[in-house]
Design a protein that fits this description.
The chain has 618 residues and is of the alpha+beta class. 31% of the residues lie in helices and 20% in strands. The longest helix has 21 residues.
Length: 618
């Protein structure tokens, strides 16, 4: 391909932003101000939108890996004359360790070139392009750095080899022999008011980043089943956390297509309440209690108070609500997939499933919410009230359909979940009359879903009421405790979904969806396990876990026939799916109880007591 595959990229992070660098040593994506800020390297979306490449001259082979328990990437290039390693890291604040990793990041990208054997001729091509490739900066030598400046941005490149600037880019070449080291650092700073970019040594940046990420990992020593995959996925999720607020973005990129040449190319550099709730569950399962508490507090602040007339389903990383979408017409798009979009108009949709996802996450971590902060209690109470009022309304569904609203079964099920968890909280959340009202609404939702969501003709729960259309989101039913996993209707739904939506274990969201959606496939793992098919669940999990790229990273989707990664990258949802499925399998293997069924009617007899902990559902 004339462009790097989505899965060819490695991921670097610093608590503010992300870098994507391909196997050929090209930094193709960096938005240094924050995840959803404008790019200074945007080659990911257009060949002319900027990159920074360091690679051997001529042919080479590649072997790469993260340095253990870190997001520091080491790429070894082997040529006919020798081998060389390029180690890439985004700088963490000097000395930042443990839960402080990501605080005060200096916005510096470091690259260390080290000769391993023989000698290798290396080439450097530096082409910064600000504001998503719109602006070609002026390059000039100043105070030992090659300074790129234009508009509101400034980049200082400090190079271990002379570079020749011309027409907004710079090139250079050098030979590195075994044992020799060349250092490169690229620092970002706003043009006004903050001073020049930080000056740091590249090897110091790498050493500090390795120590910082490992110190975070050491605080969360998950030792259960599939520990290596779970720990890496948890580290990736932490890398996608915007440290100042604690918010976790859905992905590091925008507009990578769900189908090559297609138009479903959305901006995922924001925080979805749905994803956020699943993220809280994943972090809780891997012992990241401090992150859980911070992030739940962020959600409560962002979602607002009971009087708020809306419940936005997504936010900017600092809680912004207006994420109005617009197209970058000057960019060709990844593999000519247009439009290239900034912002996401899904922020204006009604998606009632998010009510259940928040309350489900709160119930899962209830011991960490005791005593419950007043603003969190107000939020949960308001969401339960909204579920009781709005479950009858159509919405856009969890896949954010951009057409007419419908009565999506998964939205109704998650309204049931919101009401069920509110009832389980009982007196910790509200007075008895409120709990009784929620219980009555919950029972009404259940009756309606069982009557209108089940289709006898096809033998499955469907995507919308009174339809024949299948949707993989029906697999959430046993995972949230709506029905037991061995209920005949659930078993039948699993069979029909596998028959009509699966290819070699990869599930599409609906018939006609062009690619397999990874988190749906991990939901299938959980459903099979709860249905008593542990061996099949394990086999499917291991097959899915093998679909990562060579660095252990997931995209959003996979082409079910070629295995090519599709959609934005890396995708938190996919890594979260792996974590929750792996830990769920481990829980079941250990014989630990899953979520107990809700009473069919009314409220529990012990509604006013503090309810004990227990292992959650898959």
């Amino acid at each position: 391909m004339p462009y790097a595959s989505i899965g060819d990229h490695g991921f670097l992070a610093d608590g503010l932003s992300a870098v994507l660098v391909d196997r050929g040593g090209s930094v193709n994506w960096w938005c240094p101000t924050r995840f959803d800020g404008p790019s200074v390297f945007g080659r990911l979306l257009d060949e002319g939108a900027g990159h920074w490449t360091i690679r051997p001259e001529g042919d080479f082979s590649v072997d790469r890996a993260y340095l253990a328990n870190s997001l520091v990437l080491r790429t070894v290039f082997t040529t006919a004359t020798g081998s060389v390693a390029v180690t890439d890291a985004l700088a963490l604040a000097p000395g930042a360790r443990g839960h402080d990793v990501g605080w005060g990041s200096p916005r510096v990208l470091a690259r260390v070139v080290r000769g391993l054997s023989g000698e290798v001729r290396m080439v450097v091509h530096y082409q910064p392009r600000f504001e998503y490739g719109r602006v070609t900066p002026r390059l000039m030598q100043q105070d030992g750095a090659l300074v790129a400046s234009a508009g509101a941005d400034r980049l200082d490149l400090r190079s271990g080899t002379p570079l020749s600037p011309t027409s907004g880019e710079a090139r250079g070449a050098f030979t590195v022999r075994a044992g020799e080291v060349r250092e490169f650092t690229l620092g970002y700073a706003p043009a006004y008011g903050a001073g020049p970019p930080a000056v740091l040594g590249a090897e110091d940046v790498v050493a500090n980043a390795v120590a910082g990420w490992r110190s975070w990992t050491d605080l969360h020593p998950y030792r259960g089943r599939y520990a290596e995959q779970v720990q890496l996925s948890a580290l990736v999720v932490q890398g996608m956390t915007y440290r100042p607020s604690g918010a976790v973005v859905a992905a590091a990129s925008t507009s990578l297509p769900e189908e090559l040449g297609g138009q479903r190319n959305y901006d995922y550099r924001y925080v979805w309440v749905r994803d956020f709730s699943f993220t809280l569950e994943a972090l809780w399962r891997t012992g990241c209690s401090e992150e859980v508490n911070r992030q739940f507090g962020w959600m409560a602040r962002s979602m607002g108070v009971a009087e708020d007339p809306t419940v936005p389903i997504m936010y900017g990383v600092e809680g912004e609500r207006d994420l109005t979408e617009h197209s970058l017409e000057h960019l060709a798009g990844y593999a000519d997939s247009r439009p290239v979009l900034i912002g996401n108009d899904a922020w204006q949709q009604r998606q009632t499933d998010v009510l259940g996802e928040v309350l489900c996450a709160a119930w899962l971590m209830r011991e960490h919410l005791d005593p419950m902060e007043p603003e969190i209690r107000r939020l949960l109470r308001a969401l339960a009230d909204r579920a009781a009022r709005e479950w009858r309304l159509p919405d856009s569904g969890m896949w954010e359909a951009r057409g007419p609203e419908h009565h999506y079964v998964s939205s109704k099920v998650q309204c049931w979940t919101a009401l069920d968890r509110a009832v389980r909280f009982g007196a910790r959340l509200a007075a008895r009359e409120d709990v009784a009202r929620w219980a009555a609404a919950r029972d009404e939702v259940r009756r309606e879903v069982l009557a209108r969501g089940w289709n006898d003709r096809i033998g499955a729960f469907t995507g919308t009421f009174d339809s024949d259309d299948l949707d993989a989101s029906a697999l959430l039913m046993p995972l949230v405790g709506f029905l037991p996993g061995d209920d005949p209707r659930i078993r039948s739904t699993i069979a029909v979904v596998e028959q009509r939506l699966a290819h070699d274990g990869l599930l599409r969201r609906w018939e006609g969806d062009p690619a397999g959606f990874l988190i749906c496939s991990f939901w299938l793992v959980g459903c099979l396990a709860l249905a008593g098919e542990r061996e099949r669940a394990t086999q499917l999990f291991e097959r899915l876990a093998d679909q990562v790229n060579d660095l252990g990273l997931f995209a959003e989707q996979l082409d079910p026939f070629t295995g090519q990664p599709l959609g934005n990258f890396p995708q938190a949802f996919s890594h979260i799916g792996l974590i929750n499925a792996a830990v769920g399998l481990a829980d079941l293997d250990a014989g630990q109880p899953t979520l107990s069924p809700a009473p069919e009617r009314g409220i529990p007899a012990d509604w006013g007591q503090r309810l004990p902990g227990g292992t959650p559902t898959l």
